[in-house]
Design brief:
The structure is a homodimer. By secondary structure, chain A is mainly α. Chain A is globular and about 60 Å long. Chain A has one domain (about 10-110): Arc Repressor Mutant, subunit A (Orthogonal Bundle). The first copy, chain A, has helices at about 10-30, 35-50, 55-60, 65-75, 100-110, 110-120, 125-140, and strands spanning about 50-55, 80-85, 95. A 3-stranded antiparallel sheet of chain A has the order 1-3-2. The structure holds a DNA duplex.
DNA sequence: TACAATTTAATTGTACACAATTTAATTAAT
DNA sequence: ATTAATTAAATTGTGTACAATTAAATTGTA
């Protein structure tokens, strides 16, 4: 069998596996605030922006409406966001943070430090990883 | 809003996003051999091992039977693998490569080079990334 | 040897991902 | 101003992920 097909010679596989392992580490902390990982990163955008439409949110998260529509309905049912059409362009669905959703950031702000303790990379490794990952993300544009 | 909750200050997010972006780059090539990405990495293990049980396969891929059972049934229906209980221990389901599945590696072996052209990292960056990702994967053990 | 504990897959249920299509609203072109 | 093209979100359908439970086989132990 060709070496290029061995799992240990792939870059894609540890990328995929490490991504899932890190998300798995978030789970116990996210359970405490009743969010999934994808809901958490959507909330991160909202904590920052307060208001955004689905298209823009999708651009930031690399997700489309097929994923976001049900996810945002769930966040609405949890009381963290509101969903309403833009009056200036009815095609746009505006997502707004509720006060309940805003309040959630207090508890959430404790999570990054907790995760840092679980990952165990040096500051330099973390920075290097960050830069290479964004280089990969930049490739497609 | 606290900076630690900004999306651009997370390491987990570019990891998650880059993983999906890379898998997305595989799609047109994997479509040609009628495999999804997860099916592809499962086949990689089989091209290497010829025979393996579900538990071991799950250990290698960081996946459990909830994901693998339906995936392996699909690969069986495509004729690439066979599924049969081990005679020495009926709890174990042995996955074996069929000749059809083995033949598939010829076409598949062309994919890594094609992907390499899409990712555009230097050899050094690729090696650095690989090592850091496996360091993350090693953390949990 | 019984029987409790463990192990392996399968199953069930929830939540993404994402391609492809549909629907409604807006914009562009005639 | 109509109609064609475009855009945004929702919908549909397939395939993962993964927690939790179940069922069957095996192993350990009194």
């Amino acid at each position: 069998m060709k070496d290029c097909l061995k799992l240990e010679n792939q870059l894609c596989f540890p990328l995929y596996a490490a991504s899932r392992e890190v998300i798995r580490k978030y789970k116990p902390f996210l359970d405490e605030i009743n969010l999934t990982y994808t809901q958490y990163i959507a909330m991160m955008v909202l904590w920052d922006m307060k208001e955004i439409n689905v298209k823009e949110l999708g651009n930031k998260l690399y997700l489309d409406s097929g994923t976001l529509t049900p996810l945002l309905k769930t966040l609405e049912s949890k009381g963290y966001i509101s969903r309403s059409r833009s009056s200036s362009d009815e095609r746009n669905l505006m997502i707004c943070l509720t006060s309940e959703g805003s309040k959630l950031s207090e508890k959430a702000s404790l999570i990054p430090a907790k995760i840092g303790k679980c990952i165990c990379l040096s500051d330099e490794e973390a920075m290097t990883l960050y830069n290479i990952l964004y280089k990969i993300l930049g490739n497609g544009e």
